[in-house]
Structure formats: C-alpha cells, structure tokens
Amino acid sequence: MQAWQVHENGEPSAVMRLAEVERPTPGDGQVLLRVRAANINFPDALLCRGQYQVRPPLPFTPGVEICGETEDGRRVLANPALPYGGFAEYAVADTRALLPAPESLDDAEAAALHIGYQTGWFALHRRARLEAGETLLVHAAAGGVGSAAVQLGKAAGATVIGVVGGADKAAVAREMGCDVVVDRRSEDVIAAVKEATGGRGADVIYDPVGGEAYAQSAKLVAFEGRIVVVGFASGTIPSPALNHALVKNYSILGLHWGLYATKNPKLILRCHEELTDLAARGAIKPLVSERVPLGEAAAAVQKVADGRSTGRIAVVMEGAA
User: Fold this and answer.
1) Is the pTM of this model over 0.85?
2) Which of 195, 221, 200, 230 is closest to 124 using CA atoms?
3) In this structure, are residues 104 and 279 in contact, taking their beta carbons and an 8 Å threshold?
4) How far is the C-alpha of 120 from the C-alpha of 206, rounded, in Å?
5) Residue-wise over 122-151: b if at least 16 C-beta within 10 A, else e?
6) What is the pLDDT of residues 87-132, one digit of tens each?
C-alpha cells in the first residue's frame, strides 16, 4: 500500500515521504481500516516537527483523524493508532473507539466531524457550560477548530463573535454564521469586541491560539466569564496572571479532549450522538475547503502548518464518497 512516512522531524513538506509499504497488522483490540478520507489537523504538523505531546517512533505515518471502512463495509470514524496514521491507504485503530460515520455527511465531511467538533462540544458544553443568549468569542474562527466552535455556538443559541486574520478568512467566518467578525490584521480586536458587546465583553472565549490571543481574551472576558484554553497554534504558551482572574472574577478552563477516551469514554459516544443529530438537522456541517488526493498530502499538511488554510483540508482516497 501507499503511505506517507516521516523518518526525521522537521517541516511536513520536507520530511513527509510517500512510499510503498506493507499493510499494518492490527494488534489485540485493534482493527485494520481502509481509509476513505483523512482530515488534516494542526497536530499532524506538530507530529512531523516532533513537537506534539505524543511522539511515535520513527518512521511513522501522520494522520490523526479518518473516515474509514471496516472489512464488512461499515463507514466509521477513527483516530488511527500511531505509528499507522491516516495518510495512507490503510490504517489501524482501536476497535472500542470506532464511531459510526453520520449518513448525512460524505467521507471528507464525516472525517471532519470528530476531533474539532468533539473538542468544541466538550469545551463549550462540558467545561464552559455555554447558555443560550450568552456571547461567545472564538479566536481563529475560520480555521478547522474555530469554525466548528462557531457552528456549535450558534446551534446553542449564543451570539458569536469571530476573530480572524485577513479578509478572506473574515468572509469564511461570516459564512459560518458569526454575528460579528473582527479582522485582527486591520482592526483593534479589543476595541472592536468591546464596542460589539457594549463594553461588557464575552461570556465564553474559545482560544485555540494562545500567545497574543490569550492576552486579548483576558481583557475581553466578561464578569463571571470563562476562557477555555484548547491549544497554542501561535506557538506561544501564555502565563496567566491569576491575580487578574481573581479581581475580574473569571474562570480559566483547560480542555484536553483526548483524556476523555480513558477517563470517561461514554461521554465521547454521547457527544457523537448529539453531533450526528445536529448534522442530520443541518444545524452544523463541517467546512471542507479543499479535497486533495493522497499524493498531495504533504503539501496540504504544510499549508495547515503555515496557517494558510480555512476550515478543513481532507485527503480523499480514490473511490471515496
């Protein structure tokens, strides 16, 4: 089979190599899946760079999120068990963690209704307890993780403010349903959000960026607001001033979605059922901005790594829906 492999750490376009390799053999409790579509996530770039919290042995195949097919023809969603990731014709996954692919979505859309949307659901509903009528601020609102949070916020009845970088991404954020869009490249984020909220700020802030975005969040969070930290795409991990959280009376919440697989896996299934229902009703629909063949996966991962993508880029296999 064909698979992209990383033999040394570095930028994805430099270290990902397409090779002919043997199909992987599943271990105990695992299953071999034919990959139908593999969604590209920022962690794939971090894996290539050797900067992710999980460091599989070299060589490995990146690709942490797929829509695959079982031997009996069932479409399923899975997080492949590294080192046998999803940028290949076949991948290995834990049998107990398979989720049924929603019938309302094609392969690429289904692959994208997993990590990003699960992260958004757990962050907004499990951690921040977002309520209808509240204001949600989403950083990187046109990206894969951000666009999912925007849709989930709207589905929950929140007013959504999206922060983006550039006019093209601003247009995407509006299409996703943002009530207010702030372009950080041409606008003062703090002034624009304060004006949009009458000086009150946002009840919930969804931050997959860190760095300067977090500094803005601390200035924009409302009384009894919640900042949910879900990642550090900027490459800078902030150091929150806890005295500021005290005097302004807000909460700083962390969200590591992967922990639920071992700590409370039943919640992942419940979340997937809710996401499937929302997708069936048309309340959410993953934004797949590009669909590329397997041979273009390395360039696509690099595009995500460089922050030049909107929504999700999916690697779609020949014959996929």
Assistant:
1) yes
2) 230
3) yes
4) 8
5) bbbebbbebeeebbbbbbbbbbbbbbbbbb
6) 999 999 999 999 999 999 999 999 999 999 999 999 999 999 999 9
